[in-house]
From TrEMBL:
Listed name of the protein: NAD(P)/FAD-dependent oxidoreductase
Residue span, FAD/NAD(P)-binding domain: 3-288
Family affiliation: Belongs to the NADH dehydrogenase family.
Cited InterPro entries: FAD/NAD-bd_sf, FAD/NAD-binding_dom, NADH-Q_oxidoreductase
Amino acid sequence: MRKLVLLGGGYGNMRILLRLLPNNFPEDIMITLIDRTPFHSLKTEFYALAAGTTTDKKVRVSFPENPRLEMVYGEITKIDRKEKSVILEDGQVIPYDDLVIGLGCEDDYHGVPGAEENSYSIQTIAKSRTTFEKLCGLPPGSVVGIVGAGLSGIELASELRESRSDLKIKLFDRSDRILRAFPEKLSKYVKDWFVKNNVDVIAESNITKVEPTRLYNHEEVIEVDAVVWTAGVRPVKIVREMDAEKDKKGRPLVNQYFQLIDDENVFVVGDCASSDLPASAQLAEEQGERIVKVLKHRWNNEALPEKMPEIKLKGFMGSLGKKQGFVHLADTTVTGRIARLMKSGLLWMYKRQNDSQ
């Protein structure tokens, strides 16, 4: 039996499983999925788990079951491309013929002193649980600093406001306006929501140091009771330390087939893979689609397409609590209740599609 090994049960590898199972791959192939948890986590919803507005169970999807899908749970410590094997913390050695690395990312602290030690995170389900315990255990009137006003920071700030109206929330944005890369109408809508709901957005900020109860923004010292870091990501350590050519962010360089440029048997998907497009679940899924096509060509001993179709992201969706939201699709912006319903509907469809495997 030939072995296809998938590292990480994130959005990219879930899309690969969705396309291959139950029997859309050769009979002499065995698939092994390695993950630290026995379920797929909906990372796009971790902000709500951390804010206390959703439950742990609602941000999980069961992995599919199939006689030719082997599940292995544990921490990966090494990817040995010479021996074509993956080593786990408990000593297990998992050999592969083809490998898909989809291990995701972790917070990028940009070298800011104290940031890693003194802030909370929503990068994993375990860290989001810890963040929930901290934020929802704060006494009334506490100050929460959220560093980073990208989509994660915006959604966390709005959801936390809905969960804890008694907290003082400060959202630190490096830009001069929220979501600067998108239409001003969208920025204004989000900013107005924060003004109306008493979330303090601090524009053109530059966090230079983090202490347990203090944030240093430029030369200003701001007293806080908790800090959540949402200011950028980088690949997980095991990927950053891989013996492979990487970009400036530590992500392995891949060709148009999402293979390492010097190894056709190793694919990289999602936040781990070098890309000019912004990291997102949507991007990981599109990459997964292409990896499946490449695998099928190779399994059938067919030549790969000369040129793979370009990935074009459809847009993005964001929520502002449970009742309002914003959507930017095909140069069209939708805000308000309809936008929130669109996001909820997309999440429902995703869970239904993956739960039915």
